[in-house]
Amino acid sequence: MVIKTKYPPELIKKLEDMARQLRIDVVEMTHCRGQGHPGGSLSPAEIMSVLFFHHLRLDPKKPQWENRDRFILSKGHACAILYAALARIGFMPFEDLKTWGCIGSYLQGHPDRRKTPGVEMTTGCLGHGINIGAGLCLSAQLKGLDYRTYVLLGDGELQTGILWEGAMLTAKYKLSRLIAIVDCNGVQLDGTTEEIMSLEPLKSKWESFGWAVLDINGHSVPELLEALDKARASSGKPTVIIAHTVKGKGVSFMEGKAAWHGRAINDEEYQQAMEELKENV
Amino acid sequence: MFDLDNTRQIFGETLAEYGVKNKKIVVLAADVSSSVMTTFFAKKNPERFFNVGIAEAGMIDTAVGFALGGFIPFTNTFAALFLRATEQIRTCVAYANTNVKIVGSFAGLSDAKDGATHHSIMDIAIMRAMPNMTVIVPSDSIEVKKMIPLIAEHEGPVYIRISRAEMPIIFDENHKMEIGKGVVMRDGNDVTIIANGHLLSRSLEAADQLNSRGIKARVVNLHTVKPVDKPLLMKCARETGAVVTAEEHSIIGGLGSAVAETLVGEIPVPIKMVGVADTFTESAKDLDPLLDKYGMSVEDIVRAAQQAMKQK
Ligand SMILES: Cc1ncc(C[n+]2csc(CCOP(=O)(O)OP(=O)(O)O)c2C)c(N)n1
Prior knowledge:
Number of domains of chain A: 1
Bound molecules: thiamine diphosphate
CATH superfamily of chain A: Thiamin diphosphate (ThDP)-binding fold, Pyr/PP domains
Strand content of chain B: 15-25%
Strand order of the largest sheet of chain A: 1-2-3-5-4
Order of helices and strands of chain B: EHEHHEHEHEHEHEEEEHEEHEHEHH
Oligomer: heterodimer
Number of helices of chain B: 12
Number of strands of chain B: 14
Shape of chain A: globular
Order of helices and strands of chain A: HHHEHHEHEHHEHEH
Shape of chain B: globular
Largest sheet of chain B: 7 strands, mixed
CATH architecture of chain A: 3-Layer(aba) Sandwich
Largest sheet of chain A: 5 strands, parallel
Strand content of chain A: 5-15%
CATH topology of chain A: Rossmann fold
């Protein structure tokens, strides 16, 4: 299928290839560590690829640069893909990914800002991202900086009450430099979001809280590129991108399955997953 | 040494069975029921199982409503995540004195891999500081099994820890348990080691090592941290003259503090506390090396016993 887009095909190809590479990294890491959260780490691969390899204003050589864009992985359990992306853009040596979760490693089971370069905020307990992002945006205003803050949320995570406190706050202060992305894969830990606690109508929920809403296919690189550029140009309102994705995307036996939320990958499953992912490169 | 048991599965099965008999039990889950194994209850008693989604604070208040409505609600999530509901627990459970049971699963460092966000090293301190709250730390799966009916039939708020890790089986089916009553596991008059949870089996090993060095250590299982078994603690302090506490928790505010607070004004014997030394922990593949790294090894208990004895 050819999608009409203003973005150069080489850019799109590069970002699609990187998404596939990040998925391979996630499966390698989860297999090597003997645990992790494969489902929710695979679903945002295109989102992470577009952000870290094109959209975000970052300089791995200057992790503390004051006017860098901020990225908060509010769904901290998906840290495998964040670590892989950070390693691949040069925040840390790629071989170190192997130490993930071992005693003494600077790569924790959930992101730790004190230990890992490029990790802006310690996360792992869901629901904190929007309020923290709002504080970062207000700080930028007071300091006259123009960085943006990007918050990646899970759709199950939207069930947390504090998140909506943050949604109100962000709209009240018209923090248009806060961009939330919902990795809307329809599955949480115990089952589908529809079974556990329905979020619908999600678009109008956000709208009624005063946000600009973009509803897109979260596996489409062109759609992500366009939505992020739109969000970046927004004024007067924060933007949320509801990115529809598939949990476990790219590995057939994981796709759409809550059982793969937080499970180790055994050797056989690893072989099959790698075959499927490499076939697609 | 000890055989191992899947504690959280035994918790899940016990609650499910008990719920079949006691129709007043309702179970609330916050999107981790497959992890903490309340799925067993859901299967057996689907009409009394409620999954509130990722909403820990709301879960507590909903449970309070069930308690006011005449039910016995068991709320379940990871021990570390109940901290989000601390104000709800303080005001609506402890202060209002409602009959809510709080099951803090994945307790202590037992969710080793997930790291410090998922380790609970201050839950006992917080829960214990709440008036009206009973606080229980079972030391093996038999104790878990025996405790479920006891806490259900106890009128009032209860916090109980459940480990994610497999636990050594220490007791058998004849084990007698009573809320608030410690259990002397081994006799000795040189020093008393008071422990619960994962640190009880480690304390028994420490007592063996001390024994081989000619030191007779008494070992007490203090599964109920609150109300604390004051008569037993006084007796042990009087008869052994030195105390070690051992717990999978910060040394601030937990079992050690409960013991020290009890003894300090009565029989101020030397007390050494084994636990996490006021630091955040980290990820590890398994629980045991993590306990060793963070000051809760068998050797740490042995050393603490020797130091406490020296200070007599
Ligand atoms: C406050 C809080 N409650 C519960 C959990 C346990 N938990 C981790 S991930 C998860 C499900 C998250 O679902 P979703 O946000 O949809 O993430 P995704 O499907 O993208 O992995 C749960 C319940 C947590 N980490 N934090």
